[in-house]
Amino acid sequence: MSGVSQLGRADQACHELLLRLAGRLPDDLLWRLRDWLAVEGRAAVSATLPRALLRNRVGLTEVERDLLINAVGGWGAPRRLLDAVLPVHTPDPPLAQFRAGPAVPDLATLSVLAVVRGHAGTTELRQSLRIDGRGEQRVVLVLGADRPWALAGTLQRLLRAHGERTPCVEVLPSYLEPPAYHQAAIVGSAPVWTAAESPTVTETPAGALIGM
After folding, report:
1. Which superkingdom heads the taxonomic lineage of this protein's source (predicted)?
2. What pLDDT digit, counting tens, does each position of 61-80 carry?
3. For 24-61, what is each residue's pLDDT tens digit?
4. Full DSSP string of 121-155
5. What is the largest CA-CA distance in the chain?
6. Does the domain formed by 97-211 have CATH 1.10.150?
7. Domain map of the chain by residue range?
8. CA-only gyration radius of the chain, Å
């Protein structure tokens, strides 16, 4: 991370924290936080995220708390709110189930693919359907990407233009081991595109998670 600006490190920490909060914060809140982050709306993120964690009684591990402080702690979030966030040793496992979507991609998927293929650093695009008590929800998974928070915001806005009210876009940086939610989503997903020079997810160490 040498050579990365202080703001860039904070954006990266915030993106990683929001990834870890997938399945723990409501979709309608999570996509909005990611949208603000993508357009440099850091004041809105810092004002909303700590209160959302408290309101939804979402606890953070020590690693996640460090990410919170490294991100919104420098964007004006009151320290008393950060200190009030509940601690948790290990997050609860995801309750949702995931399965692969239709074999034939729809227009929204093709539009997402066109953007992902042109974004620096991306190695794979996968898609899953999350199934829980609220029904089915498309989950887009992108492996690798430079400035992953910016790509997540772009893809969210694209999916909203195709009629998705609460788009779920998970852009996983190459350095991050997928959290449990994303492990489950990868297992229950289908590949859409893989970079020619990159092995598929089932051939990489991250793909080894599928056999767990």
Report:
1. Bacteria
2. 999 999 999 999 999 999 99
3. 999 999 999 999 999 999 999 999 999 999 999 999 99
4. T--EEEEEEEEETTEEEEEEEEE--SSHHHHHHHH
5. 50
6. no
7. 6-84, 97-211
8. 17
